[in-house]
């Protein structure tokens, strides 16, 4: 019933058009190439890849991770203040030296004639520690999107890969208020369902799950529940569907249609404006899989140590080893054009494709940052 109370309810009839196989009625709105936006990727080693990708806006994770091991050998990943203070400066300098991209300070900065608008993000609130003054400190350095947690609990919020899931902490509520004040986009990717619901209820502006998949299709805690999709959509937010195939399908062979199914599901539960594209791999694709010619049988091996460590902890969703990492057709620099063609073949109307390919991300970024 809560979806019926939302402005998104007016869109409830729209998804049927996308599902029914209607012919495309638009091609980039009739005004040239479509606007492409990516909800999560990284700076490439070769900055020329930005032009090759066709992206005109992206959320760019500039955080740096340090691996640590629990006493039992379980791998964990941490983002410290010192390391990320340096990382954001280095990223901003690299972007400033690149004619095809620029650091975006607000959504209104998006302008395809200037190149790709980069909205800098940290994939965890860990660099903030308990000092909320660091939020404004990093904001001055260009931070415009902040994830509460990455898999595990932080001082701000509960992560998705915990045996006893929790939500926002007292500090997390204060941090969210600071994000709202500074117009930093709150990102609940990698959070528990409780974290997502708490943030959606408490935020005074839209929140996003920048990159993920749908739990109704793959029953895994890294994937978002229908309840959380509706909560994010009801507040005007967005869910980005990513490229990590082991969370898109449990079938032995991943296919573009598996990704499309998650897009359709978000539309059906949250409305057309609630879905976008995310990568979560490097711009040119998951590098090891690219080197292997997208041979998932070999490429998946690098994930098995971590996957099995999660299984030993007793976490749900890890009982069976994954068989793949990427959808081969999408694991390359022309991903966005390939996705556009995939949506056209799937029968989405042109106006819907415009929204999915980037207009929804543009709307969120312009309304918030």
Task: Fill in the keyword field for this structure.
single chain; 369 residues; alpha/beta; six-stranded parallel beta sheet; three-stranded parallel beta sheet; globular
Which of globular, elongated, flat, extended, rod-shaped describes the shape? globular
* Terminus-to-terminus distance: 31 Å
Unreliable segments of 5+ consecutive residues:
1-29
Number of helices: 13
SS class: alpha/beta
Helical residue percent? 25-40%
Mean pLDDT: 91
Radius of gyration: 19 Å
Describe the largest sheet: 6 strands, parallel
Q: Could you give the count of β-strands?
A: 11
How would you sum up this structure, described in words?
With 369 residues, this protein is of the alpha/beta class. The protein is 36% helix and 13% strand. It is built from 13 helices and eleven strands. The chain has helices at 15-20, 48-53, 81-96, 133-140, 170-182, 193-202, 226-234, 256-270, 287-291, 296-299, 301-312, 335-345, 350-368; strands at 37-41, 57-61, 66-69, 75-78, 101-103, 116-122, 143-147, 185-187, 208-212, 238-241, 275-277. α8 (256-270) links the parallel β10 (238-241) and β11. α6 (193-202) packs parallel to α7 (226-234).
